[in-house]
Design a protein that fits this description.
alpha+beta, 36% helix, six-stranded mixed beta sheet, globular, single chain, Nucleotidyltransferase, domain 5
Length: 496
Amino acid sequence: MTEPSKKYIIAIDQGTTSCRSILFDKNGNIRGTEQKEFKQIFPENGWVEHDPIEILNTQIQTLKDLINNNQVDVKEIDSIGITNQRETTVLWNKNTGQPVYNAIVWQDNRTIDFCEKLKTKDLTELISSKTGLVIDSYFSSTKINWILENCDEAKKALEEENLLFGTIDTWLIWNLTHNHYTDVTNASRTQLFNINTLCWDEELLEIFNVPSKILPEVKECSDYFGEWNFKGSNIPVLGVAGDQQAALFGQNCFEAGMAKNTYGTGCFMLTNTGINAIKSENGLLTTIAWSIDGQVNYALEGSVFVAGAAVQWLRDSLKIIKESHETEKFAESSNSEDVVFVPAFSGLGAPYWNMNVKGGIFGLTRNSNIQDLCKATLQSLAFQTRDVIQSMEKDAGLSIKELAVDGGACANNFLMQFQADILNTKVIRPKIIESTAWGAALLAGIKSNFFVLDDIKSNRIIERKFNPSMAPENRENWIKKWENTIKALIAMYDQH
C-alpha cells in the first residue's frame, strides 16, 4: 500500500493572547484554522504572566482540532512550522516537565530596577555591540535572572541540574519532540546570544548571572527540530522563527531594504538589512532576521509595545466595545480632531525606550465620546509606526516607498488608510494577512522541499493598496499634536 502524498503544512502560531494552528496547502491557501485564547495574569502593577501548561494544552488542542475537524490524514501532513511570541521566558524542571514559575511575558516590566543598575555600570555599549539590543526589561535575560533570584523551586532544580530555560518556541519543541532546541531568531531576543558569533556569550551570561547549562541548543530557522507523534505518525518540526521574523519572511521581504509592519498585540516593524548587522543610532534594535543554509540575514526592528492591546483595553477594561472590529465604524463616525491617545501601558518602546512613561489621553472635552476614543486608539498605532519608520530610514539610509502590513488589525480599513495618510506612503495588504503563520510554514516547507522559494516570490497576491490622500497641512497638524503629546508625557514621568 502506497503512502499518501504530502498535501499540507501546519503552522503553529503561539501568540501573546491566543494559540492558533493553521493548515496550509501547497499553493499557500489556508485550508483550516483553529484558535483558542488563554488567560492573562497580572499579579502586580506592570507584571504580566502566562501559565505555560495552559499555553501548551491550548496549543496542542488547536493542533488536534485542526487535524480532526478538517478530516486530514496525518500521513498527508508534510511538516510543522512554529512561530511564537518572543522574549517570554519559561523555566522548567526537565524531570517533572513542570514550570518552576509562570512564564514572564515580554510586556512585563518587573526588572526595571535591575536594568537601571546595569546602565549605571556602563554596560550599554557592550551589550548592544554583542546583541543589537538595548538594556530593557523587554528581553529574556533579566526575566531569567529574576526567576533564579526569587523562586526557590528554580534554585532547587538548578542545584539538582534539572533546570531548563526556553522562550515559548523551546517550551513547545521540548514538549512536542523532547528536544531542547531554539532557533537563532528567538535566541537573538534573549540578550544572551551574540549575533555576530552566533553563540551564547559567556560574558553576557556572567552579567545576567545565567548558567549556560540551562540554555537550549541553537539551530537555523529552517532545520530539523524533532518529530511530534500523533495518531501513530511522526510529523517533523522543520521551521521555527520568532513571530516578527516569521512575518518578515512571510511578507516576501527577502531583499535588503524591504519592510513590513505587524499589527498584533504590539506593533512591530522590521526592515531586512541583508547580510549586514546595521547598528542603530536612532533607538532601534539590530536583530537576526533568519538563518537558512548557513546564510544569516539581519534586520532593523522597531517595537511598539501596545498596539492591538489598546483595542483589547477598550473592549475588556473600559467595556465600551464588544468586538475589536467595531472600532472601525466608530472611528469613521468621529469628527474629533483633538483627542490623542498614547497607550504606553508598558512604557514607550522604539525609538524612545522609556520604561517609566505611562499612558495618557489628551484633548478631551465635554463632547468627547466613544467614537473619538476609538479613533484616537487606532490613530495611535499609526503614529507609533511613523516614529519607528523615521528612525529606520535614518539608520538604513533609505526611504521606504511602501509598507507591507499584516496582523489582525491590518484588516481595519480606517487604520490602514490613516497609516498611509500619516506616512504619505503606500500601504500594501496582501491576500494572506496571516504572514506570521505563513512565514513559519514556508520555513518548514523549504527544508522539506514542499515549497520552492522562487515560486513563492512570484506568486504573491495583493489584496488592497492604500494610497495617501490626506492634505499636507492636515498631516502636519496631526503629527505636531502627536509629537507634543509624547513630549508632555515624557516630561511628566521624567525622573531625572
